[in-house]
Amino acid sequence: MAEQQGTDGSGAELDLLVWDAPNIDMTLSTILGSRPSPASRPRFDAIARWFLSGAGDREVEGCVFTNVQPSSAVTMRGWIEALRNFGYAVFARPKLQADDDVDADMLQHIATRQETHRLRRLVVASGDGRNFHQPLEALARAGVHCTVLSFSEVAGYAQESELIEFVDLEDVPGAFQMPLGRTRLTSLPPGGGWFRPTRPMRALLEEAPVAPTGITTHASVTAHVDLSEAGTEVGVTVTPATSVTPVTPVAAVPQPGLNGRPAAPRPLPARAEP
Fold first, then answer.
1. Which of 21, 155, 189, 239 is close enough to 150 for a disulfide, judged by CB 3.0 to 4.6 Å?
2. pLDDT tens, position by position, for the chain (274 residues)?
């Protein structure tokens, strides 16, 4: 039987959950300061139960969108099969280029479900406001209940929106086997709380030193700094490695002297022979 079209209101009512696996995994790593362990990864069965609790008798669909590195295809197979066993459909895109993301695929699937069903509730598990902010607010204005499921540290666009509901992933019952050890600005204890560093301070010693103030470190940028009282202008060319290559000094343009007469240019200081 062909699917009914939902654009005219004749399709079945649907609650849709789309999960941005690369974004959630990257955000979780940032929050924890390290790669998540099995105990600190979200439990998709608990996420599914939470999602179902708000669906009533409507149809439901949960979809996980992920990238697959060629080197990790074998190890990800078990995870994908577990998701399917929990009732999720999985869309996998090979990660061959840096821009091989799944955001456009997620938006396309949402648009498809708008055509085939009457979309009543949409849950987007992603902190990516650049791609989802405006589409979600447009759907909310059209009558779709839109929820962003992510972490408060990154999903500011949803927390500030008057049209989008925000749910912190750690607030979903049973989503994690143990607390993540976060300190959230939105729920600070009365006595205050600590924000742990995301990496050791000594890691700074492994980085290139910061250039002095006033020197631009971007590639192919030329800066001009006034280094003398006489107004002599010295050009410096900054390379990607922040080295500075002096350029031959150029005498400044003579400035007006007393009585409006041009003052004689001051001679450049003699350069010491090597």
1. 155
2. 334 444 445 589 999 999 999 999 999 988 887 888 888 899 999 999 999 999 999 999 999 999 998 888 888 999 999 999 999 999 999 987 777 789 999 999 999 999 999 999 999 999 888 899 999 999 999 999 999 999 988 888 898 999 999 999 999 999 998 888 776 676 677 888 777 776 789 888 988 776 655 544 444 443 444 433 444 444 444 444 444 444 444 444 455 544 555 555 555 555 555 4
The torsion defined by the Cα of 191, 195, 196 and 201, in degrees rounded to 10, comes to -120
State the sign of the Cα–Cα–Cα–Cα dihedral 147, 171, 104, 85. negative
Domains of the chain, earliest start first: 13-188 (3.40.50.1010), 212-243 (no CATH)
